Backbone:
Protein backbone atom coordinates (compact mmCIF):
# COMPACT_ATOMS: atom_id res chain seq x y z
CA UNK A 1 0.00 0.00 0.00
CA UNK A 2 1.06 3.56 -0.69
CA UNK A 3 2.62 5.30 2.30
CA UNK A 4 1.48 8.75 1.20
CA UNK A 5 -1.78 10.71 1.37
CA UNK A 6 -2.82 13.24 -1.25
CA UNK A 7 -6.02 15.14 -2.02
CA UNK A 8 -8.07 13.44 -4.72
CA UNK A 9 -8.30 16.52 -6.91
CA UNK A 10 -7.28 20.16 -7.23
CA UNK A 11 -8.06 22.97 -9.63
CA UNK A 12 -5.89 25.79 -10.84
CA UNK A 13 -6.07 28.65 -13.27
CA UNK A 14 -3.62 28.84 -16.12
CA UNK A 15 -0.43 30.79 -15.40
CA UNK A 16 -1.03 30.71 -11.64
CA UNK A 17 1.14 28.79 -9.16
CA UNK A 18 -0.07 25.41 -7.91
CA UNK A 19 0.84 23.80 -4.61
CA UNK A 20 0.19 20.06 -4.45
CA UNK A 21 0.45 18.68 -0.89
CA UNK A 22 1.49 15.23 0.23
CA UNK A 23 1.51 13.72 3.70
CA UNK A 24 3.93 10.92 4.55
CA UNK A 25 3.92 10.76 8.34
CA UNK A 26 5.54 7.30 8.48
CA UNK A 27 8.53 8.23 6.31
CA UNK A 28 11.77 6.51 7.28
CA UNK A 29 15.29 7.87 7.22
CA UNK A 30 16.14 6.06 3.99
CA UNK A 31 13.01 7.13 2.08
CA UNK A 32 13.38 9.59 -0.78
CA UNK A 33 10.32 11.58 -1.83
CA UNK A 34 9.59 11.20 -5.53
CA UNK A 35 6.93 12.86 -7.65
CA UNK A 36 5.66 11.46 -10.92
CA UNK A 37 2.79 12.62 -13.05
CA UNK A 38 0.62 10.95 -15.64
CA UNK A 39 -0.74 12.98 -18.51
CA UNK A 40 -3.90 11.66 -20.20
CA UNK A 41 -3.29 8.53 -22.28
CA UNK A 42 0.41 8.43 -21.41
CA UNK A 43 2.64 6.55 -19.03
CA UNK A 44 3.80 8.17 -15.80
CA UNK A 45 6.74 10.56 -16.06
CA UNK A 46 9.27 11.64 -13.46
CA UNK A 47 8.92 15.16 -12.10
CA UNK A 48 11.28 15.63 -9.19
CA UNK A 49 12.67 13.99 -6.06
CA UNK A 50 14.28 15.00 -2.79
CA UNK A 51 15.51 13.70 0.55
CA UNK A 52 15.69 16.55 3.07
CA UNK A 53 16.39 19.83 1.32
CA UNK A 54 14.12 21.73 -1.03
CA UNK A 55 14.79 21.01 -4.69
CA UNK A 56 14.26 22.89 -7.94
CA UNK A 57 14.37 21.71 -11.53
CA UNK A 58 13.02 22.92 -14.84
CA UNK A 59 9.64 21.32 -14.23
CA UNK A 60 8.86 22.13 -10.62
CA UNK A 61 10.03 22.76 -7.08
CA UNK A 62 9.77 20.42 -4.12
CA UNK A 63 9.41 21.83 -0.64
CA UNK A 64 10.05 19.32 2.14
CA UNK A 65 8.95 19.95 5.72
CA UNK A 66 11.67 20.05 8.34
CA UNK A 67 10.35 16.86 9.98
CA UNK A 68 9.95 15.28 6.50
CA UNK A 69 6.42 14.19 7.29
CA UNK A 70 4.98 16.22 4.46
CA UNK A 71 6.04 17.81 1.21
CA UNK A 72 4.62 20.10 -1.44
CA UNK A 73 5.13 20.01 -5.18
CA UNK A 74 5.08 23.51 -6.61
CA UNK A 75 4.32 24.31 -10.23
CA UNK A 76 5.27 27.96 -10.57
CA UNK A 77 3.03 28.77 -13.53
CA UNK A 78 0.49 26.14 -14.44
CA UNK A 79 -0.17 25.53 -18.11
CA UNK A 80 -2.92 23.51 -19.73
CA UNK A 81 -0.33 20.83 -20.40
CA UNK A 82 0.18 20.40 -16.64
CA UNK A 83 -3.29 18.88 -16.28
CA UNK A 84 -2.46 15.38 -15.05
CA UNK A 85 -2.57 13.02 -12.09
CA UNK A 86 0.33 13.75 -9.75
CA UNK A 87 1.74 10.98 -7.60
CA UNK A 88 3.81 11.45 -4.46
CA UNK A 89 5.85 8.28 -3.87
CA UNK A 90 8.30 7.25 -1.17
CA UNK A 91 11.25 5.18 -2.38
CA UNK A 92 13.23 3.25 0.19
CA UNK A 93 16.89 2.99 -0.68
CA UNK A 94 17.65 1.07 2.48
CA UNK A 95 16.36 -2.16 1.02
CA UNK A 96 16.55 -3.84 -2.35
CA UNK A 97 13.05 -3.07 -3.62
CA UNK A 98 13.19 -0.88 -6.69
CA UNK A 99 9.57 -0.68 -7.74
CA UNK A 100 7.37 2.38 -7.33
CA UNK A 101 4.26 2.13 -5.16
CA UNK A 102 1.53 4.31 -6.63
CA UNK A 103 -1.41 5.65 -4.65
CA UNK A 104 -4.45 7.36 -6.09
CA UNK A 105 -2.60 10.63 -6.67
CA UNK A 106 -4.06 14.11 -7.12
CA UNK A 107 -5.88 14.91 -10.32
CA UNK A 108 -4.97 18.47 -11.28
CA UNK A 109 -7.31 20.39 -13.56
CA UNK A 110 -6.07 23.62 -15.16
CA UNK A 111 -8.60 26.16 -16.37
CA UNK A 112 -7.79 28.60 -19.17
CA UNK B 1 17.43 9.22 -27.60
CA UNK B 2 14.46 6.88 -28.06
CA UNK B 3 12.23 6.38 -25.06
CA UNK B 4 10.61 3.21 -23.79
CA UNK B 5 8.41 1.69 -26.44
CA UNK B 6 5.61 -0.82 -26.06
CA UNK B 7 3.80 -2.95 -28.58
CA UNK B 8 0.97 -3.24 -29.32
CA UNK B 9 -0.65 -0.04 -28.14
CA UNK B 10 -4.00 -1.78 -27.89
CA UNK B 11 -5.02 -5.42 -27.93
CA UNK B 12 -8.52 -6.87 -27.89
CA UNK B 13 -8.79 -10.62 -27.31
CA UNK B 14 -11.35 -13.14 -26.20
CA UNK B 15 -11.29 -14.84 -22.85
CA UNK B 16 -9.10 -17.92 -23.00
CA UNK B 17 -6.82 -16.61 -25.72
CA UNK B 18 -3.15 -15.79 -25.37
CA UNK B 19 -1.61 -12.34 -25.68
CA UNK B 20 2.02 -11.27 -25.66
CA UNK B 21 3.01 -7.72 -24.80
CA UNK B 22 6.42 -6.39 -25.71
CA UNK B 23 8.56 -3.69 -24.11
CA UNK B 24 11.75 -2.17 -25.51
CA UNK B 25 13.58 -0.26 -22.78
CA UNK B 26 15.91 2.66 -23.24
CA UNK B 27 19.26 1.40 -24.51
CA UNK B 28 21.67 0.75 -21.67
CA UNK B 29 19.00 0.48 -18.98
CA UNK B 30 19.54 -2.71 -17.02
CA UNK B 31 16.44 -2.29 -14.86
CA UNK B 32 13.11 -3.13 -16.49
CA UNK B 33 9.78 -3.02 -14.67
CA UNK B 34 6.26 -4.08 -15.56
CA UNK B 35 3.24 -2.41 -13.97
CA UNK B 36 -0.47 -2.49 -14.71
CA UNK B 37 -3.61 -0.54 -13.94
CA UNK B 38 -6.86 -2.41 -13.95
CA UNK B 39 -10.15 -0.53 -14.15
CA UNK B 40 -10.63 1.92 -11.30
CA UNK B 41 -7.53 0.82 -9.41
CA UNK B 42 -4.09 2.25 -8.80
CA UNK B 43 -1.06 1.38 -10.87
CA UNK B 44 0.40 -1.81 -9.42
CA UNK B 45 3.87 -3.28 -9.73
CA UNK B 46 4.16 -6.68 -11.43
CA UNK B 47 7.85 -7.52 -11.68
CA UNK B 48 11.38 -6.22 -12.00
CA UNK B 49 14.25 -7.46 -14.16
CA UNK B 50 17.89 -6.59 -13.73
CA UNK B 51 19.37 -7.44 -17.10
CA UNK B 52 17.92 -10.88 -17.87
CA UNK B 53 17.33 -11.92 -14.25
CA UNK B 54 14.07 -11.57 -12.37
CA UNK B 55 14.92 -9.46 -9.34
CA UNK B 56 11.41 -9.29 -7.91
CA UNK B 57 8.25 -10.92 -9.21
CA UNK B 58 6.17 -10.48 -6.10
CA UNK B 59 3.50 -8.52 -7.94
CA UNK B 60 2.68 -11.14 -10.56
CA UNK B 61 -0.98 -12.03 -9.97
CA UNK B 62 -0.84 -15.75 -10.85
CA UNK B 63 0.87 -18.33 -13.04
CA UNK B 64 -1.07 -17.27 -16.12
CA UNK B 65 1.44 -14.44 -16.44
CA UNK B 66 4.92 -15.16 -17.77
CA UNK B 67 7.58 -12.50 -18.26
CA UNK B 68 10.86 -12.94 -20.05
CA UNK B 69 13.83 -10.79 -20.90
CA UNK B 70 16.16 -12.89 -22.97
CA UNK B 71 19.54 -11.29 -23.54
CA UNK B 72 18.75 -8.48 -21.17
CA UNK B 73 17.27 -6.24 -23.84
CA UNK B 74 13.57 -6.25 -24.68
CA UNK B 75 11.00 -7.98 -22.49
CA UNK B 76 7.77 -9.81 -23.17
CA UNK B 77 4.81 -10.38 -20.90
CA UNK B 78 2.57 -13.26 -21.91
CA UNK B 79 -0.89 -13.83 -20.52
CA UNK B 80 -2.16 -17.36 -21.11
CA UNK B 81 -5.06 -17.93 -20.92
CA UNK B 82 -6.42 -14.41 -20.58
CA UNK B 83 -9.32 -13.77 -18.20
CA UNK B 84 -11.75 -10.85 -18.04
CA UNK B 85 -10.05 -9.41 -14.96
CA UNK B 86 -6.77 -9.07 -16.88
CA UNK B 87 -8.18 -6.11 -18.80
CA UNK B 88 -6.31 -2.92 -18.11
CA UNK B 89 -3.30 -0.89 -19.14
CA UNK B 90 0.12 -2.52 -18.87
CA UNK B 91 3.08 -0.20 -18.46
CA UNK B 92 6.74 -0.92 -18.84
CA UNK B 93 9.47 1.23 -17.31
CA UNK B 94 13.24 1.15 -17.45
CA UNK B 95 16.06 2.74 -15.51
CA UNK B 96 19.76 2.61 -14.99
CA UNK B 97 21.21 0.85 -11.98
CA UNK B 98 22.20 3.13 -9.12
CA UNK B 99 20.82 5.56 -6.60
CA UNK B 100 18.84 8.73 -7.31
CA UNK B 101 18.67 10.35 -9.78
CA UNK B 102 20.38 7.66 -11.88
CA UNK B 103 17.58 5.19 -11.22
CA UNK B 104 14.76 7.44 -12.42
CA UNK B 105 12.19 5.23 -14.08
CA UNK B 106 11.10 6.11 -17.60
CA UNK B 107 7.73 4.74 -18.62
CA UNK B 108 6.39 3.64 -21.94
CA UNK B 109 2.97 4.71 -23.20
CA UNK B 110 1.38 1.46 -22.12
CA UNK B 111 -0.54 -1.34 -23.81
CA UNK B 112 -4.30 -1.29 -23.32
CA UNK B 113 -5.52 -4.88 -23.04
CA UNK B 114 -9.21 -5.64 -23.40
CA UNK B 115 -10.39 -9.18 -22.72
CA UNK B 116 -13.93 -9.90 -23.94
Residues:
Amino acid sequence: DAKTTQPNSMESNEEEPVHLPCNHSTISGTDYIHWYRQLPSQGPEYVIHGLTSNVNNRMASLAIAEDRKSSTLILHRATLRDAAVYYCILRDYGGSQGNLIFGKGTKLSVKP
Amino acid sequence: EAGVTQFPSHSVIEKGQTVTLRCDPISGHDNLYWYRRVMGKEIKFLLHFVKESKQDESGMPNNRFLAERTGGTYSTLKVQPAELEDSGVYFCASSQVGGPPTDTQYFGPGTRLTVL
Observations:
- Residues 3 and 54 of chain A are 20 Å apart (CA to CA).
- Chain A has a mean pLDDT of 93.
